[in-house]
Structures are given as structure tokens and as C-alpha cells.
Specification:
This protein has 350 residues and is α+β, with helices and mostly antiparallel strands. The chain has nine helices and 17 strands. It has helices at residues 13-39, 84-93, 130-148, 171-179, 194-201, 213-225, 280-298, 306-314, 325-333; strands at 43-44, 50-51, 64-68, 74-79, 97-105, 117-126, 153-155, 158-161, 167-170, 187-188, 191-192, 232-233, 235-241, 250-251, 254-265, 268-275, 318-324.
Length: 350
């Protein structure tokens, strides 16, 4: 049955017959999304999978490989976790509007909503504020629903109308509403006060001695906030705290928050977007700190892509977003698991 865990390989005729309606829906959604970007004068790009650095986020893990040079020497390369570095180099080159259906790779991920290889839909607008990218997300999600004719998204007992006006909610507002935490009171000078957040989150989440401010933030977000998002309609969660800025710029009028947002439907995170940081020195500082933490936690760290940092310095003001395309197809087609909407799920699938 479609909702059951599979007991046969994806290529068995019976299982493929069950999955085929979702795969046909995937094609329809892909066409509808490409149509939207064509209307908006975007150029579709294809960027390379093999990278010097796969990304520099603490908790994202990338497969590693080697390439042999013409002289016989070997060089380490990584399968990208995102096309972001390459796309921003194209922004620096002068491309004003680009999008990509990118194959990306992440170790340590598998489940109903995660695969080690998946498709990320990523797009950028040069010279545009990040609320323009938020608006794009709403249209892209609605176009996906229109392509399949689905009236509402449903996942694990939660529903969301993809055509309704989305809920706009700041991260601080969400923490106050769902966890009773004054999040911004635990941030000073762009840094999180670990002790302050630990005190206010005590009794709400389990806190370990080695948990950082970001760890506690993530626990509260996952346990108390995310289950309430995207209920009945989409939720756009925006103004992330500055310690969680990642590749986003901090807001000029409030340095405690950054121009970062995420989009949720039925409690499922669909997209993560930024008003892009164009300060290369600040980006280097963030990456260096993240890789030091990665080394401490996991015993490994990824190199910095010096070409990317040079491109950041040359980038125009821009905004962009990464949307989990397989997750969108899953919701828009009525599938229950992400492997149902992928033509050839990675070996060892659920």
C-alpha cells in the first residue's frame, strides 16, 4: 500500500505502480515552477556538484571524495550540501536573476522527510529585498498546488491551505507565543547569552552542560515552535536572531535579528531564505567560528572556499532562498514520504 513502509525495491512493478502518480505529479510541478521563473525573467543555471568546500554550517555533513589530477596527484573534493556558493559567484559575475534545480547531498540524514541525496530549488534576485523572495515562495508553493489540483496540504494529521494568505510571524514572537520565552532579551551585541537563555528555557527543554546558546535555541524551536507552524495556512517565520544569521545580513535597524526567514506548511520546513550578506570579512568570521564548533563536536571541519569569499565581496545586494523541492512535491501530490516522489531513491531507502 502507498502509505506503508516498502518491502520491495522501488523498481519492482507493483511498488512503482503505487509511486507513479506522485512521480507524474513531480513532472507537472517542475513545469509549473519553471513557468513561473520564465515569467519573472529568471535564467536557469546548472552549477557543479564537486566543490572545494560543501558549505560551512556546523551541523551539515557532506560526502567526501577525491579527484585525480592530470599529474597523478589527488585532491579532496566534497559533494555540495547546497548550490549557494556557486550561485553567488554567478551573482558576482553579473547575473541578475537565477534559479537552479540542484542535486545536493547530506550525510547523516534519512527518514520520511530526509534523504542523503535530494533536489533543492534555489533562486536569487539581485537588487531585491528579502520580502520579494518571501513573496516568490508563496507563489511557487501555490503553483505547485495548482499543478496537481490539490486543495490542501496534509501531513501527519496537520493541514494547510496553500492558497490562503500566509501567516507572518517573527521568531521572537513565536518564542513568546509558544514557549513563553523573551528570546531577544538573551541577545546582546549580536551574541547569544547562553546563561540567560538556559535560565528562561529551564523546564521547557532538556539542557546539557555543553549545550551552546544555539543548541538551546534549536531545541526550543523544534519542540515548542515548529509543531505550531503552517497550521491551516503557510507560516513565514522571519527575523531570525543574529546568532543564527548563517549567510544572512543583520538588520540595520535591529542588530539582534537578521534578514533570514523560513517557510512552513503542516509543520514541515519547506524553505530557508536570506537577505544576503555581502561583507566578506564578517562571512569569514562566521564560517571560522562554525568550523571550530564543528571540529569540537564532530572531529572534522571543512575548508573555506576562498573564491566564494572573494565573490561575496563583489556581490551586489541580493536576496535568495533554498526550497526543498522533494518536500514540496510530497505535500502537493499527497505523498506520505519523501522517497515516494523521487524517481530513483538512494540505495538503502526507507
Amino acid at each position: 500500500m502507498v502509505g506503508d513502509k516498502p518491502t520491495s525495491p522501488f523498481w519492482s512493478p507493483g511498488r512503482h505502480l503505487d509511486r507513479r502518480p506522485f512521480l507524474v505529479a513531480r513532472g507537472a510541478i517542475t513545469g509549473a515552477v519553471r513557468g513561473f521563473f520564465a515569467e519573472q525573467d529568471f535564467v536557469e543555471v546548472e552549477t557543479s556538484v564537486l566543490q572545494v568546500s560543501p558549505g560551512n554550517e556546523t551541523h551539515l555533513h557532506a560526502p567526501r571524495t577525491e579527484i585525480m589530477q592530470p599529474d597523478g596527484s589527488r585532491a579532496t573534493r566534497y559533494l555540495r550540501t547546497s548550490p549557494e556558493f556557486a550561485c553567488k559567484k554567478l551573482l558576482a559575475a553579473g547575473e541578475p536573476r537565477i534559479f537552479e534545480f540542484a542535486r545536493v547531498f547530506r550525510d547523516r540524514e534519512r527518514g520520511d522527510l530526509h534523504l542523503p541525496e535530494f533536489t533543492m530549488l534555489e533562486w536569487y534576485r539581485a537588487g531585491a529585498p528579502y520580502d520579494a523572495i518571501m513573496a516568490d515562495c508563496v507563489v511557487v508553493i501555490a503553483r505547485a498546488a495548482q499543478a496537481t489540483g490539490i486543495g490542501q496540504f496534509s501531513f501527519r494529521g496537520r493541514i494547510a491551505d496553500p492558497f490562503a494568505e500566509p501567516e507572518l510571524l517573527t521568531v521572537a514572537g513565536a518564542f513568546a507565543r509558544f514557549a513563553g520565552i523573551d528570546l531577544l532579551a538573551t541577545i546582546s551585541g549580536g551574541e547569544g547569552d547562553r546563561s540567560a537563555l538556559a535560565r528562561t528555557a529551564a523546564g521547557k527543554v532538556r539542557i546539557s552542560e555543553d549545550d551552546t546558546w544555539s543548541d538551546i535555541f534549536s531545541k526550543v524551536l523544534v519542540e515548542h515552535v515548529e509543531p505550531h507552524l503552517g497550521q491551516g495556512r503557510l507560516t513565514i517565520l522571519f527575523e531570525y536572531p543574529s546568532p543564527e544569521a548563517a549567510l544572512a545580513r543583520v538588520k540595520a535597524d535591529n542588530p539582534r535579528v537578521a534578514e533570514r526567514f523560513e517557510v512552513y506548511a503542516c509543520g514541515v520546513e519547506l524553505a530557508n531564505g536570506f537577505g544576503e550578506l555581502t561583507d566578506a570579512d564578517e562571512q569569514r568570521r562566521r564560517f571560522t567560528e562554525a568550523m571550530a564548533e564543528k571540529q569540537r563536536r564532530y572531529g572534522e571541519a571543512y575548508p573555506l572556499d576562498e573564491d566564494f569569499l572573494a565573490a561575496v565581496a563583489d556581490m551586489p545586494e541580493a536576496s535568495g532562498v533554498a526550497l526543498g523541492f522533494d518536500r514540496l512535491v510530497m505535500l502537493a501530490s499527497g505523498a506520505l514520504r519523501i522517497d515516494q516522489v523521487v524517481w530513483t531513491p538512494p540505495v538503502g531507502g526507507t
